[in-house]
Amino acid sequence: MAKASQTADGLVRIKKYANRRLYNTRTSSYVTLDQLAEMVREGTDFVVVDAKTDEDLTRSVLTQIIVEQENKGENLLPIGFLRELIGCYGDGLQGMLPNYLEMTMRTFAENQQRMREEMTSALGGNSPMRQFEEMGRQNLALFEQAMRMFQPQGEARAAPEPEPKPEPAADAAGDDLSALRRQLAEMQRQIDRLGDKDNAG
Known about the structure:
Blueprint: E1 12-16, E2 22-24, E3 29-31, H1 33-41, E4 46-50, H2 58-71, H3 79-88, H4 97-122, H5 128-149, H6 153-158, H7 172-200
Parallel strand pairs: 1-4
Antiparallel strand pairs: 1-2, 2-3
Helix pairs in contact: 1-2, 5-7
């Protein structure tokens, strides 16, 4: 009778043969270490067993995957960490290390997921870049208004721009624009008066 393609707890069964080939019983196909690594990244849980004795080989195969990744230049394990890890073998407290490392990696993965979600949110509807663009448009509008009000003195004297009457503003940006207009108009009148005094002298 054939073995089930997955265990009772839902793990995919991977059989390892004497020739080191790995066989995925769920997909009925041979797989490579790279494909197993991709399954891990996708969150697919599997167990590797000896095809003949049914011995659990998951730990050694996962370790082999790490070695393969490190040999490709994707170095995640610092030499100092590896030395410390080797030094823990045979130590009286080595039984505590697996749980500690597993808890640490779980916390790291949760923080990493939170960072991804925050980045996704930041790039969504409340994008800081969009807010900066809107602020830039408002600043440009105020600047253009100021440049129009600072016309040549003769032209301003011939047709002085009347002081704008207070208008109800829909938002804070409207209030700022009205205040700026009044201030610039007052400055223009003062410049005109100074010019008249100089001409009179």
